[in-house]
């Protein structure tokens, strides 16, 4: 049975998509069968995995809104053991279209029932909001991985996220837990970085991963080549640290 992990933070640009794609690829590198589900209408995980928009006829929108079987929308990537359910801009309408639907918070859960056996990990790349799409992700997930960017106000807005997690635990998914908090875009050249690390560790304690993802230009280049970092530049700091993160996640099992 796949462990399902949502990668979430309603702040944009904190490294959710970068983490989903690269953690997913690194888990696949270690021999796990991985499915990445893109539920952000931006489709950054989709294009970052090398899936071209022109090759996508149906996507996660059709699964959530039109009850398309998820098997029909899975794409394979160039890396073995790594599959993707893509998102395209049509997903932008889903927040509104889901509103009047019955059991709207559990549509993703229902959709994934039949494929949970086929993977070891399912990672969900969440949008920068706490709307119906994110609630769907939390309702089906075992846990949530929270990337936090090493910058001023890093913790700002996290109380809203934690509140949403508590609401989902109360109403839809009592077993939901926090997988871990990941510090991202760390810049060793500034004092700010280490101050933020200390602050986040004080608040989240042992739930913060030992691995810290540095700011690394190769990580920001890789998506435009449609490749995870371990295929784009396996010797980079970015590749090294995402492999280390994957090891930590595997050790949590
Ligand atoms: P989110 O999904 O939370 O919006 P992204 O993963 O898309 O965030 O990251 C935002 C931007 O920062 C992207 O352009 C991405 O390539 C870049 N980026 C993410 N992580 C790093 C990093 N560790 N070093 C350098 N650039 C990064
Ligand atoms: Mg993103």
From TrEMBL:
Domain of life: Bacteria
Protein name as catalogued: Sporulation initiation inhibitor protein Soj
Listed PANTHER family: P-LOOP CONTAINING NUCLEOSIDE TRIPHOSPHATE HYDROLASE (PTHR13696), PARA FAMILY PROTEIN CT_582 (PTHR13696:SF52)
InterPro entries reported in the protein's UniProt record: AAA_dom (IPR025669), DNA_Partitioning_ATPase (IPR050678), P-loop_NTPase (IPR027417)
Ranges of residues in domain AAA: 3-178
Reaction equation(s) it catalyzes: ATP + H2O = ADP + phosphate + H(+)
Alphabetical list of Gene3D superfamilies matching this protein: P-loop containing nucleotide triphosphate hydrolases
Family as reported in the entry's similarity comment: Belongs to the ParA family.
Family annotation (CDD domains): ParAB_family (cd02042), SIMIBI (cd01983)
Quaternary organization: Dimerizes in the presence of ATP but not ADP; ATP-binding is required for double-stranded (ds)DNA-binding. Interacts with DnaA.
Pfam families: AAA_31
